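Example 3.
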Amino acid sequence: MTKRLALLLLALAAAVPAGQARIEAELGTPTVQQQVLYLWSGGHVKRLFPGFESIAADLYWLRTVQYFGSERRFAREKRFDLLRPLIEITTDLDPRLEIAYRYGAIFLAEPAPEGAGRPREAAEVLEKGVRNNPRSWRLRQDLGFFYYLFLHDPDRASKVLLEAAELPGAAFWLRTMAADILQKGGEREAARKMWQQMYDQSEEGVLRENAKTRLLSLDSLDAADHLTAAVDTYARRFGHRPARLEELKAAGLWNGPIADAARVPFRYDVGTGRVTVSQSSPMWRPQ
Amino acid sequence: MSRLVAVAANTFRETVRERVLYNLVLFALVMTLSGLLLGQLSIRQDEKIIKDIGLAAMELFGTLIAVFIGTGLVSKEIERRSLFPLLAKPLSRGELFLGKFAGLAFTLLVNVAVMTAGLFLTLLATAGRADALLLAAIVPIYLGLLLVVAFAMLFSSLTSSTLAAVFTVGIAVAGRFTDMVRNLSEVAPAAPRWLGPALYAALPNFANFDLKDRVAYGDPVPATVLVWIAVYALAWIGIVLGLGLAAFRTRDFQ
């Protein structure tokens, strides 16, 4: 009797995974439950916490940071769908929380997979910050930087930087930068100054790391340009382009590394002689 | 006067026996843990978050103590019939009522003082400085708590402790929606035009006691504002205690 029961249990135990496999084959494999946001309006959340809006804003900000971090690190698709609503709710609850605008904008603007790749929305977040904090020159400075760096609109960027320079306590170099970015040909130098400012103004953390990566990325672009120039010199001297970049070293035309700041080898197109940052490198950014 | 002080001292001992001080242990734990964790999680917002948590916890825990102990002060004495031996003593109903208010007010003062010390210590340990400006938010919070106690005692003189707690929470919550009450015609266009202003005048504006945001951002709070908040609070406390006293004096406990 016991033996029969044991056999029956074994047969049933084997049937469970087989049945599950058949069901999944028909209905699809279950996926991880997506993160859910139950309240989408800052106004509604505000009404739920009368007198405690600040602490609610802090909690939503913590959730924003955790959501961004977990999506960037662990999510397969990295969609960042809840990022903008979380930033909106946080800033509705505490319109003076500058950090939420500044970091939120970076989270939104950086191209995937580092960020959400939605620079237009990032600028909207900063525009809201400027509306809610008209005396903050830092938010206006960031808005100017974003117009220039992510939306490639130097006219608007220059105008906003000049507005920032008018505010009390504003950094002295804002006027010079506003003028510099309107000059053609100095785009990379202007970008470098902006990222350097973001690096200097931020403490250890995501913003500083991001600014550092951006600066290294610009250094890598410079190195690629210098390598392209060395290829030209090589071609003039030997009548043909080098087959590999290592030949530049042998010819005494290059003594640095032939890899970018992330130690990923540069991409070299023998046909055109152009050296570029490899798309597989963390230093690569869409131009 | 000495009888009033004796009732107050007895009420203080009684509330301490109700394990109110456990609240302080919880507060200390929350503050310490938040101080340790939030710096890692919040990206440069640890100091502001500690201030927000400290002030919000002070207000929230204080309100809970004010409501649940405040409503029990009178009505439990009535329900347990322990009021009768007290009234048989050479003690007026007014002295008993006001003495109980003063006792709970002192308990809340000790609570708020210990919480303030805890908040300052956490800030010293994490940010390296304690912000004296926080007192400009803590004093109004305490005044608001006294008003809640006054309402709790008024309602508990009129009805059971459960209903008194419900009514007191109702007043404390409605008093935080005064912006909506004042502009009632915009929120509910069908409501009579006089209703909004009438309710606005009849309800205490608890938003007046909320300077947490300003203080957390380091905005200065003019002394005149604090004086007017104190005047407003004391006027309301006087009115509500007066009504409670009248109800307590005239109530037939048989």
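Chain B touches chain A through 23 residues (CB under 8 Å). Chain B has a mean pLDDT of 85.
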